[in-house]
Amino acid sequence: MNGSVYIGISGWRYVPWRGVFYPKGLAQHRELEYAAGQLPSIEINGSFYSLQRPESYAAWHAATPPGFVFAVKGNRFLTHMLKLKDIEGPLANVLASGVFELRDKLGPFLWQFPPVMKFDPQRFEHFLSLLPQDTDSALELARQYQPRMEGRVSLDAGPNRPLRHAVEIRHESFMDPAFIAMLRRYKVALVVADTAGRWPLCEDVTADFVYIRLHGDKELYASGYGDEAIAAWAARIHAWRQGRQPQGARLVSNVAPPRKKARDVYCYFDNDIKVHAPYDARRLIAAVETMAAPKD
Predict the structure, then answer these.
(1) 167 contacts 190 by C-beta, under 8 angstroms
(2) Alpha-carbon distance 172 to 113, whole Å?
(3) Rounded distance, CA 131 to CA 50, Å?
(4) Among 45, 62, 134, 157, which one is least packed by beta carbons within 10 Å?
(5) Which residue blocks in 39-87 are alpha helix, DSSP H?
(6) What is the CATH number of the domain that holds 107?
């Protein structure tokens, strides 16, 4: 038994991609539709910079095929500006802003933290305790949105479904077994982030799924992945989806995660500057499929 694998790109609106990945003359409003025809999942990046609107999420749902999955990047106001202080209202705003319009295509939330932010156990545990584990809980929190959101919210969450959350850290202080244990208590994934050596790369499994972000292995946001690197990531993904730990995994904690027969894996390429991301994603998809194919 294998978990599902969703490999895609972080964002889709990039000027250098036009006429290269996107066919020449393709209307900008059709770029998501085109990308979703090439890849099974995309990370919504705009939600990190500003709260999006319900009509945008509804349009993205309509532009993508059945079975497509979006990851939603949490708003930086919580992580970079407030640094997890007094976040109840802003978190409610995120959940009320329209994410429910993605319906069955709503995948995990990604919460990225700035390089200057250190591990503060009390503040971080409070944040993790607030993260809703299903859409019913998310709706309950979303109803507490702040007055400034009036007139631009969506509170139709549909049938109750589980929600997933992943955190991406960029400070060495998080290389602490206590942090790994905390994530496991709240069933939140630690992002496996390849950042050309600039920030920590940890492969501890802390949830029932794995979340990977590939920013470039030699030059941040710019370098493509060679055949050897693609094969190595395919092998890791193959192990994780089977509930195993990859050989030589880079671990913070010496405590093994709970046993699982399978884990879902989400992987997003963020090496977008030189248009490597969509092509590297397709190459990794092919490598993972080859590895999973029955052997004669």
Answers:
(1) yes
(2) 12
(3) 19
(4) 62
(5) 46-49, 54-63, 76
(6) 3.20.20.410
- Given 3-state DSSP classes, what are the helix, strand and coil percentages for the chain, each rounded to the nearest 5? 40, 15, 45
Q: CA 40, CA 44: separation in Å to the nearest integer?
A: 13
Q: How many domains does the chain have?
A: 1
Q: What is the pLDDT of residue 1?
A: 81
Beta strands in 118-200 (DSSP E): 165-168, 189-190, 192-194
Give the span between the Cα atoms of 282 and 275, in whole angstroms: 13
- pLDDT tens digits, residue range 14-55? 999 999 999 999 999 999 999 999 999 999 999 999 999 999
Its domain, for residue 140, covers 5-292
In the chain, which ranges are E strands?
5-10, 41-44, 69-73, 106-112, 165-168, 189-190, 192-194, 209-214, 264-269
Determine contact, residues 183/207, Cβ cutoff 8 Å: yes
Task: Give yes or no for a contact between 296 and 243, defined as CB atoms under 8 angstroms apart.
Answer: no
